[in-house]
Amino acid sequence: MIDFNKETEFKDFNHDGLKAHAEQCNQCELSDERTNVVFNSGNPNANLMLIGEGPGQQEDEEGIPFIGRSGQLLTKILESVDIHRDDIYIANTVKCRPPNNRTPRPKEMDTCQNYLIRQIQLVQPKIICLLGAAALKAVLGPTESISKIRGQWVTTQVNYMDDDLYIMPMFHPSYLLRHASKEKGAPKWLTWNDMKEVKAALSFYDIMSKQ
Ligand code: SF4
Question: In total, how many domains does the chain have?
Fold first, then answer.
């Protein structure tokens, strides 16, 4: 698992400063072919953070994560449980598009990791959803496959809050596009149920923060 409490070279950066730094980054070869650095979307004070794999073509062109077909499906799934994209924070394990949408290489995810760690420290989410195998590997390290571990809460201690951080691995929406069945037990059905569980946990924190 990544060290959520790590003191990175970005420890003194605020969110805008970190984003500006990433926009000039050429620490790995993914900078060679990118159009835009895709840093985040949504609310930098959100209780829920989603972490995906990396930008695709449309995301690279527009500089916004999860806006292609996968992103549209993700938005639908979120809205089905009354979670709105503007209220949550969305980021990726790597901020620059891997050529031909290949999976980011471990070295690339490692090189980009300190941006992600600092993003988490700045946003201070109570809940993180890991979308797909690459995000699972980047954050939790070697573990069960995504199909075995999805839907199970993983908890860890972080410096920024007293309660544990709750982490939910889920299928990536691009996987759901390739497995379109909504039948009980199918990946889409499972993901919808996972998201309902995330919504229930999120509602708890939303209520607590209003007390
Ligand atoms: S993927 Fe991350 S480490 Fe690589 S160039 Fe982009 S911002 Fe820098």
Answer: 1
**pTM recorded for the entire structure:** 0.96
For ligand 1, the distance from its centroid to the CA atom of residue 115, given in whole angstroms, is 9
Quote the pLDDT of residue 96. Answer: 98
Please give the distance, rounded to the nearest whole angstrom, from the Cα atom of residue 191 to the centre of ligand 1.
Answer: 29
- The closest alpha carbon to 30, from 90, 88, 115, 87, belongs to 115
Residue 45's domain comprises 15-206
Helix axes 69-80, 187-210, angle to 10 degrees: 60
CATH number of the domain residue 160 falls in: 3.40.470.10
| Residue 7 belongs to a domain | no
Q: Residue whose CA is closest, atom 4 of ligand 1?
A: 28
Q: What is the pLDDT of residues 15-42, one digit of tens each?
A: 999 999 999 999 999 999 999 999 999 9
Q: What percent of the chain has pLDDT over 70?
A: 98
